[in-house]
């Protein structure tokens, strides 16, 4: 019975996916003009969206496992915000997009943001709540600094809008290629470490006695999530709550799957979700286009509140 | 009889609070019970021996080698730790949890082999949790969860099992079941068990040696048969009258 349900679900999922892909590319008779749109606008946009979906949902899932906190998300704990600050700074000082210094700057900002949030939460007794609280503090701190930069620099103003609610447009193939390269390396590392991550999510002390160096592993994995987040922010800006929602949905739909498979499916769901929300933002108020972060933030904040209420109920 | 664990002059503080104050002990019996009042440092001691806490002063030797000289994975094949309780917000299948016990024996980049699975099925049969292998850990009863954790420790295949109040939340039949399993294992596979216990009755029934801790030190050791004659000493540790202790044990 259960298998049947899963099968039906998969059929619906894949037909929806195919439908979306077709309507996305709207493959009618290709004229030169159509080809131009397809190759220079639609396909880069689609690839950007895949990168973002993959990296955000994976980062969210792994953060949740590692901090044992189902409310963790790179946006909420302030990693995305710090990456955005780093991008604005590097634009102002004129670093080349996807040069080494550029990525290093963004990565160092996002890693330090993740670690700060986590360290604060470890110091406090109620870890779950304080991770979110330190995230709020970090987010508003970073936002104010961004605003200062935006006011004093003209270039940053344009970026500010695209970055703060996300945008899938404006990416060269070279940038997309780099990003794919980076996230595929990160995915390989994650799949090697996933058994260890699983044990930490189960019980940290138990992990320690099973020969896992928990401190080192946590540091490595925090850096990986920060790197995933900074890749996604640098190609498409901040798109909040994807990392929060998608892992919950994946776990609910496939509660019995092994984590090794689960995190790959989770990544696909992330991209799928962004595909749908991109279709929505393009067609809801045609010809005006909304930024994609709008949809995910509306859906995500409702989801977040629902999740908090559900946890409260369980704790009673 | 050889002592498999030797502890010399162990000191440990949680911040300002001194927990262990120059503790020394040697264990040789098959099942060692550690008893004592709340807050006397029993759990801390176990966590230090199992390598969870590393910032201590003193020396601990396992099989005549200092635990700081062992590699982490090596230590994991010698010692396994059974926590009193595991709280996880995520859903884990019982099978996944049992597989974790094989991780120390796995090389980098290897995945679980057929022998790993066979070992798990063997022990699951022995303990009687074969029927719940596909269930979700968080949906099990307290007793079943503890059985799973004990199974995980046995699957780890180590020679010493450290247990932190494994049976304090359980009903009588699960308490007896878990200790029967452990007793059998100590006979059949020559493993050693060190367990923190609150229940003196259980300690009297199953332990070969009961160590009493008081204020960060080991106070005295008793054989289970000496428990009744040692009631005066026990009553000092728990600071209640001798009669009450006697009545409880009987």
Please characterize this protein's 3D structure.
The complex is a heterodimer of chains A (316) and B (250). Chain A is mostly helical. Chain A is 81% helix and 0% strand. Chain B has a 6-stranded mixed beta sheet with strand order 6-7-8-3-9-10, with helices on both faces.
Question: Which key phrases capture this entry?
Answer:
heterodimer, A: about 325 residues, mainly alpha, B: about 250 residues, alpha/beta, four-stranded antiparallel sheet, 9 helices, 10 strands, about 35% helix, about 25% strand
Ends distance of chain B: 31 Å
- Uncertain runs of chain A: none
Percent of residues in β-strands of chain A? under 5%
Show the largest interface. Answer: A-B, 26 and 31 residues
Biggest sheet strand order of chain B reads: 6-7-8-3-9-10
Coarse shape of chain A = globular
Q: Give a quick account of the main beta sheet of chain B: strands, pairing sense, barrel closure.
A: 6 strands, mixed
In one word, what is the shape of chain B? globular
What is the H-and-E element order of chain B? Answer: EEEHEEHEHHHEHEHEEHH
């Amino acid at each position: 019975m259960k298998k049947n349900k899963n099968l039906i679900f998969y059929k619906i999922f894949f037909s929806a996916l195919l439908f979306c892909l077709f309507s996305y590319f709207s493959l009618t008779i290709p004229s030169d003009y159509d080809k131009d749109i397809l190759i220079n606008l639609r396909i880069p946009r689609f690839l950007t969206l895949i990168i973002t979906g993959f990296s955000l949902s994976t980062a969210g899932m792994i953060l949740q496992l590692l901090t044992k906190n189902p409310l963790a998300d790179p946006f909420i704990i302030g990693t995305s915000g710090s990456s955005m600050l780093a991008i604005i700074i590097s634009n102002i000082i004129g670093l080349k997009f996807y040069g080494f210094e550029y990525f290093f700057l963004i990565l160092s900002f996002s890693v330090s943001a993740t670690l700060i949030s986590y360290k604060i939460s470890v110091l406090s007794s109620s870890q779950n709540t304080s991770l979110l609280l330190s995230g709020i503090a970090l987010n508003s701190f970073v936002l104010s600094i961004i605003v200062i930069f935006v006011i004093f620099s003209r270039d940053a103003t344009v970026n500010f809008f695209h970055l703060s609610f996300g945008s899938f447009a404006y990416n060269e193939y070279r940038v997309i290629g780099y990003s794919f390269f980076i996230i595929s390396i990160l995915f390989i590392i994650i799949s090697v470490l996933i058994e260890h991550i699983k044990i930490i999510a189960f019980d940290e002390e138990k992990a320690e006695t099973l020969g896992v160096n928990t401190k080192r592993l946590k540091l490595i994995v925090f850096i990986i999530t920060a790197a995933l987040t900074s890749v996604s922010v640098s190609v498409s800006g901040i798109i909040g709550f994807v990392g929060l929602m998608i892992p919950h949905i994946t776990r609910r739909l496939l509660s019995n799957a092994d984590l090794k498979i689960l995190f790959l499916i989770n990544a696909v769901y992330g991209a799928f979700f962004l595909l749908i929300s991109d279709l929505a933002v393009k067609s809801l108020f045609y010809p005006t286009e909304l930024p994609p972060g709008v949809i995910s933030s509306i859906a995500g904040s409702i989801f977040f509140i629902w999740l908090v209420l559900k946890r409260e109920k369980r704790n009673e | 009889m050889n002592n498999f664990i030797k502890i010399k002059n162990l000191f440990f503080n949680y911040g300002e609070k001194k927990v262990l104050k120059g503790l020394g002990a040697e264990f040789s019996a098959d099942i060692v019970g550690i008893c004592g009042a709340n807050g006397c440092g029993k759990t801390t001691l176990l966590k230090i021996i199992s390598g969870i806490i590393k910032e201590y002063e003193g020396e601990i030797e396992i099989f005549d080698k200092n635990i700081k000289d062992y590699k982490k994975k090596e230590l994991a094949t010698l010692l396994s730790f059974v926590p009193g309780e595991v709280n996880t917000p995520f859903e884990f299948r019982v099978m996944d949890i049992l597989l974790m016990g094989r991780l120390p024996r796995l090389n980098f980049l290897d995945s679980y082999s057929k022998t790993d699975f066979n070992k798990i099925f063997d022990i699951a049969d022995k303990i009687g949790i074969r029927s719940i292998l596909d269930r979700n850990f968080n949906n099990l009863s307290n007793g079943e969860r503890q059985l799973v954790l004990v199974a995980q420790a046995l699957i780890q295949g180590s020679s010493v099992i450290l247990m932190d109040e494994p049976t304090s939340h359980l009903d009588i039949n699960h308490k007896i079941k878990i200790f029967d399993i452990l007793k059998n294992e100590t006979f059949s596979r020559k493993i050693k068990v060190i367990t923190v216990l609150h229940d003196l009755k259980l300690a009297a029934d199953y332990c070969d040696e009961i160590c009493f801790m008081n204020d960060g030190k080991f106070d005295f050791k008793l054989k289970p048969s000496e428990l009744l004659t040692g009631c005066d000493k026990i009553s000092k540790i728990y600071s209640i009258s001798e009669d009450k202790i006697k009545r409880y044990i009987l």
